[in-house]
Amino acid sequence: MTVIECRHLEKRYKNGAGVKDADFTIQENTITGIVGRNGTGKTTLLKTIAGYLKKTGGEVSVFGENPFNSLNVSANSMYLDEYTMFSNALTTKDILDHHGRFYPNWDAGLAQRLADYFSIPMKVGTDYLSKGQKNTFYGILGLAARCPLTIFDEPTTGMDASVRKDFYRALLKDYLAHPRTILISSHHLDEIDELIEDLLLIDGGRSVLHLPVEEVKEYAMSVSGPSLQVKQWSDNQEVIVHLEDKGGLSTVIVKNHFTAAEKAAARDLRFTPVSASDLCVYLTRRNKGGIDDVFSDSQHG
Amino acid sequence: MSLATVSTGDVIRQQVIYKCYAMADLWRSLVVIQLIAIIFSALGSGGMGTSDDMFSLDVTTFSTDTVFLFTVFWLIVTSALITSKSYRFEDFSYVTTRGISQASNGILLLLTVFTATVFTIMSSYVIFMTILVFDKGDFYPGLASVGTPGEVYLSFLAIFGYLLVAAGAGYFFGILIQISKLFIGIIPVILFGPLFVRSYLIYEFGYQFYALETSITLFMIKAIGTALVLYGAGSLILNKKEVREI
Amino acid sequence: MLNADSTKPIYIQIAEWLETEILHEKFKAHEKMFSQYQLADQFNINPATAAKGLTILADAGILYKKRGLGMFVTEEAADQIRHRRINETLRALVSDIVAEAEHLNVKEQDLIDMIQLEQSRRKGETS
User: Fold this and answer.
1) Do residues A125 and A267 both lie within one domain?
2) Is the ipTM value over 0.90, yes or no?
3) Residues A18-61: pLDDT tens digits?
4) Domain residues for C99?
5) Which of A163, A188, A216 is the last residue of a domain?
6) Calpha distance B105→A31 (Å, rounded)
7) Which of A46, B174, C34, C40 has minimal Cβ neighbours within 10 Å of its Cβ?
């Protein structure tokens, strides 16, 4: 079953930023990682899916309906980020109790056990929690509510390394026991690339890549060697990015659909796989060259 | 995972319960405000005196006017406050739609107006008892102060009507301010500007429309109608508004 | 057991680990294999990735599917794995060793001695 469908979805702000063309389909009971650089429209996209924001063009449907002002979508989905708000008149314990009244799948026992495990204070308002504790608490809400669609927008901001690991472990275990559709946005793809099934890469408000993460890991190859040979060999290949030319050596990132014969022909070249997170960096590169070039001018000029 | 089906009515009920908890601080502030007003009132709100060689006569008037005015002010502020971003966004941390948020706000305001009315009526008894305890003079109760059930009923309706209009106005003003901060300046100018240019027309109209209405039924119809128009107009605006934008 | 930094995809590592388990007779013919969910829990990975590892083994005839019951080890699984590993993995390793010995001018007999020495060392370790 399709849970989310975006067809050329557009959500532009007055300053022109936002989502420009999101086109993808998310199937039921998958964990999808949403990645991309800062300010490329990830949060806007997720809030539009959650029904917080109103699209300005294209189509978006969640559980088969437009999420803006849909009770069905609100009751079956949850969006959590570090700015999620709760009245300070309520303690964290109160908030857990209120969630129990709103969400039919709420697991109060799990929420309490997780809160104990992560040492979340239960008698204070959320304003008294540290940034990491707050996000951990919101993570607990997202897990215990067991909504058919749960959206975590940068859930591990401010968390300790060990808490991050535990949180993702808890997410996986609860997902295995209660499969559901989960979206996680993160700057750190390395942290979630074994947890997620699919990867959705957003760049400049557009969905540029949506593939199973295992395919993303095999999507490209890094080829390096003497510049001339690299150039000759890669002329017939689909080059994603030309990385560097230094001291007569070059490195290019090419799409991994050359034949074994083509690879065998390139004897002097070194082939190394490109990790999913490196590929995302290469695909969303805007500037030519690297950080080194920023300094080369001032040093030589 | 199968989808949950929820009914609008049930979600509105859950939101109202949630809001009652979240509003606890605001309701506590009502008690504080009224207590301050009661102290002012118990000091007497008007006095006159006369004396000759033999007698000295001091007349002090006590009334719940101060309590009522403080409550009106509190209600305008409170109902404007629940349209603020943080209150609106909190709804969306749970299950809701814009329609459900508006409906539950409406019910919450109705509950608040009812409570405020009861408190205001009761404050007259508190003032009465304070005077009995502390004041040595003779006490002559006036109309509808500690009156017969019929009189209490009448004043209840009147106070309820006025507070309803206050809540509707506060809610509407609050929403206007949510659209544009300019309204923080515009609203006082429209309300109090005519005072400064000595044009009393709209106050005259308001006085005649509400205060000089002799039929309680007609007054209630006017009050409820005004509140509904203000609440409805505000809700129409909020229904299109996004939440958690940027 | 899995190496996240390895250049080998996780699902291939899963498949290889399961093959080794079968070779060591942790799973005998017609016994039920781990489910994708058990593997996901054990290795802290997405169940779809685990399923991909199982699919590789099913495609190779090492596992078979019983509808609604899960995956089971085939009769010839262990032989097949051994056969393939000898023909592919071991041969490739031997080719690498011989090439390296050639680079280093190691004589054939010296290379054989090295292998024998390692074998007797391992025997000493296990006995």
Assistant:
1) no
2) no
3) 999 999 999 999 999 999 988 899 999 999 999 999 999 999 99
4) 78-126
5) A216
6) 36
7) C34
